[in-house]
Amino acid sequence: MRILVTGGAGFIGSTLLNTLVPRHPEHQFLNVDVLTYAANPANLAVIEGRENYEFEQVDITDEAGVRSVFDKWRPNCVIHLAAESHVDRSIHGPRAFMLTNILGTFNLLEAARATWTEGEGLFHHVSTDEVYGSLADGEFFSEDSPYDPSSPYSASKASSDHLVRSHGRTYNMPIRISNCSNNYGPMQFPEKLIPLMIGNLLKRRPLPVYGRGLNVRDWLHVSDHCEAIWAIVQHGTNGESYNVGGNCPMRNIDVVYTLCALVAEATGTDEDELRSLVCFVEDRPGHDLRYAVDASKIAQELGVVPSRDFSDGLRSTVQWYLQNQEWVQAVTDGSYRDWIEQNYSSRATATISKDTSKNGPTP
Ligand code: NAD
Ligand code: DAU
């Protein structure tokens, strides 16, 4: 296959490429990424220079740029991850989300339609459980749950899902969609809950928990998400969507206290001292209370189940951040952009805010 991966310099995309490129020398991979603030080419050092890996800096909102990549490279499979992905940023500046997540997805679909004859190729769209909105206690998202997005981010992802599905139905394009729960693991940009809290714990800074910390998220290790994506690409059914989850719904406050315990254990610090860093801050507007994924379809049809238990996965994630302080430092002080500035044009250079004590990172 000639597999075009969008957003391959981000958290999940880089984990996917680092896994698949060495494992599948029989496939050719092209990473298409514009390199926003969320991209970090250092995440791809392991596969740089491999014969079956190439990179193109392209903005998926640029119709002509996207068309030219398809014309030149002729992919027969697209795994689409490129997106603006952070809910808080979407609240403060929704436009980029509409452009990348909706228009960008549309551009890719149209380029694929122009390149493939009807019924050929495969467009796999990586989406989120957030499209379904919020659940009551005891409920789970199934593939048939109605779409009910709450934030500009999730509304833009819901829109992109609809576009992908409609291209499948109208133009007989082979499409598949995965709707995954919250990912965690190494190399996640520290604007997201888990890496932000680990970083603050290591620096003894306040841990900003939105509201009372009672919101529930279903956590999945990023490597399990990548295996699920690959299983769908290889063995899924066209036109279908698959929910992917960790079978691990947890309240945010419990995740944060677990991190306090793990960092205390790893650094020989007093756990109570770390727990005292928790501060409850103003809630996120439109904050969905509970996400929990019923992942039985992908388990039954494709045999995909999470391989990593949350507490082990979280312990190894804490270890990774502890052992990769240079990576953390470069991302927090902004120097991770230097290489991009020197070698590529840069669309966005924002790093995380230095003041994460009150409302989380400022976009
Ligand atoms: P990320 O923010 O870490 O990475 C996004 C990547 O997309 C970056 O490399 C960025 O440069 C690139 N990108 C952004 N705008 C672009 C544009 N206009 N043109 C080309 N490239 C562009 O995101 P992530 O956490 O790795 O998420 C990847 C995908 O998975 C997203 O579609 C997201 O909605 C979805 N998802 C994420 C999670 C999660 O917990 N992180 C869960 C479910 C689904
Ligand atoms: O559910 C899948 C989604 O998970 C993905 O589609 C998104 O791309 C990804 O960013 C993630 O969205 P969330 O909003 O759930 O993730 P985040 O890490 O931003 O927040 C997780 C929870 O923690 C959420 O309830 C908000 C809360 N939170 C977050 C931050 C950054 C805090 O309490 N304090 C914080 O500082």
Describe what you observe in this structure.
The protein has about 375 residues and is α/β, with parallel strands linked by helices. It has one domain: 3-Layer(aba) Sandwich (Rossmann fold). About 40% of the residues lie in helices and about 15% in strands. The strands form three sheets. It has a seven-stranded parallel β-sheet, with helices on both faces. Strands 7-9-11 form a three-stranded mixed β-sheet. It is globular and about 60 Å long. The protein starts with a strand and ends in a 20-residue tail after the last helix. It binds nicotinamide-adenine-dinucleotide and 2'deoxy-thymidine-5'-diphospho-alpha-D-glucose. The site of nicotinamide-adenine-dinucleotide has 30 residues, from α1, α4, β5 and β7.
Concise summary:
With 363 residues, the chain is α/β, with parallel strands linked by helices. It has helices at 11-23, 63-73, 87-92, 95-115, 152-171, 193-202, 222-235, 252-267, 271-275, 296-302, 310-323, 325-333, 338-343, and strands spanning 2-6, 28-32, 53-56, 77-80, 122-128, 175-180, 182-184, 207-210, 216-221, 241-244, 249-251, 278-281.
